[in-house]
Every structure is written in C-alpha cells, then in structure tokens.
C-alpha cells in the first residue's frame, strides 16, 4: 500500500473528467484568442479591430494611404500599391496627422477609434490571464472549494470578455455612424476587424464553461455527487481509532 502522504496528494482529473476536459479545451482556446487579440496589429498585423478605408480620395496609382487599420497596440496605413506604414507598438498611440491627411480621413475619425483602445488593451490581457488560472483549476474539480473558485473566476472572465466584446463592437459602430458627418469629399467604408469575431468566439466559449462549472458546483444537470472513496473510509477509521 502506498504511503498516506502520497494518497493525500491531489491528482489531476480524479473526478468529473468530462467537465474538466471540456473546460481545459475551452480555456486553452480562449486564452489564445484573448492573447492574440491583445497582441494585435502592429505586433500581429493580420489581427485588427477596425478597418477604415477612404476611396476616391487620392490618385489610385499613388502610394498615399487610403486604408487605416487599428489594433490594440498601434495602427497601420495601407496604400493602393500595397505599401504600408505602421505606428507602434506603443501604449496610448496616436496616428500622425500627415497619414490621415494623405488618406483623406478626418482626425476626429481616428480619435473615435483610438478612444477605447487603451482600456481594451488592459482588459484583453486580463481575460487571457484569468483564462490561464481557470485552465489550471479545471484539473482539480474533484475538490469542491477549487471548483467553486474556478466558477467565480470563470464568471469574472466571461463578464470581462463580454465587456471587451461590447467595447470592440461599440468602437466600430460609433465610427461607422459618425464618419460621414465628420468629413466630406470621400467615400468611406468602416469594417469590423477579425479581432472582434475572435473575442466573440472566446466570450461564447467562456459562458458555456461557466454553465459547466455551475453544474459541477451545484451537482445538477446530470452531475452527481461522487461516491464515498476508500480514502474517505480510511480517514473515518483513523478518527474512530483515535
């Protein structure tokens, strides 16, 4: 028989294996999604939150910028000749006025997009950190206290993720609704970046995980209380013998 100190050591995935595995997959995925968006353009140029393009504002064969993409850490301006110029990565960046002038994009338009990005930077990375914590706790859901802690942190993560998604969505919608009234003489298009949909996927997944953890903590929706283990019996015997 193994020593008692070995039997008392917590082992991952002792019980509720299906819920644990689902949470591990969900929180690994959400961690990656929140982190990738938190490291969006210009660090990862293919991931951005909002795209603002001004058509017919410059000569089509010019290398002046006609498209501006905003990420959490900076922005990149693109021309019809596929040349680009990026600002950042830096915290609380601003887009130089000469780039906006060349693109025919009003300074107020850029200010609208930049207004919420500083707060989003912090929240994206906080959500990634919380996802990591829940990922680790999901290995030990056999312990009720650990499962309860995982549920609380998961709920906070899901709530913050929802705030991040709402802010991402609001930035794009506000710019889209205001852009034509701020500047005339160019035809603008405002599009959602792929980062918005990545955050949406992470938020949906984390709320599903909150439901799974709630079922585990409350022993409902098909989750049963574990049968009394041999270790529990041994502890009871030791107490009686004393």
TrEMBL record:
Pfam families (UniProt xref) = SUR7
* Cellular component, GO annotation: cell division site; growing cell tip; plasma membrane
Query: Which residue ranges run through the membrane?
Result: 21-44, 117-141, 148-175, 195-219
* InterPro entries linked: pH-response_reg_palI/RIM9, SUR7/Rim9-like_fungi
Its domain of life? Eukaryota
**PANTHER family in the record:** MARVEL DOMAIN-CONTAINING PROTEIN, PROTEIN DCV1-RELATED
Q: What is this protein called?
A: Pali-domain-containing protein
Q: Which organism is it from?
A: Coniophora puteana (strain RWD-64-598) (Brown rot fungus)
């Amino acid at each position: 028989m193994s020593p008692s100190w070995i039997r008392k050591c917590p082992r991952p995935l002792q019980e509720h294996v299906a819920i644990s595995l689902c949470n591990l997959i969900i929180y690994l995925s959400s961690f990656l999604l929140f982190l990738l968006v938190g490291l969006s353009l210009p660090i990862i140029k293919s991931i951005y939150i909002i795209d603002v393009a001004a058509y017919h504002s410059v000569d089509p064969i010019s290398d002046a910028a006609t498209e501006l993409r905003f990420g959490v850490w900076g922005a990149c301006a693109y021309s019809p000749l596929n040349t680009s110029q990026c600002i950042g990565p830096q915290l609380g960046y601003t887009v130089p006025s000469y780039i906006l002038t060349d693109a025919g994009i009003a300074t107020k338009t850029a200010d609208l997009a930049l207004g919420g990005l500083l707060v989003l930077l912090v929240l994206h990375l906080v959500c990634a950190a919380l996802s990591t914590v829940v990922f680790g706790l999901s290995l030990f859901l056999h312990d009720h206290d650990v499962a309860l802690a995982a549920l609380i942190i998961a709920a906070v993560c899901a709530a913050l993720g929802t705030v991040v998604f709402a802010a991402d969505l609001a930035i794009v919608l506000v710019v889209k609704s205001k852009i034509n009234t701020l500047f005339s003489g160019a035809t603008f298009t405002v599009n959602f970046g792929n980062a918005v949909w990545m955050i949406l996927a992470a938020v949906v997944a984390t709320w599903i995980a909150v439901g799974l953890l709630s079922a585990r903590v409350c022993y409902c929706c098909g989750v049963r209380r574990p049968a009394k283990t041999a270790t529990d019996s041994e502890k009871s015997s030791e107490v009686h013998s004393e």
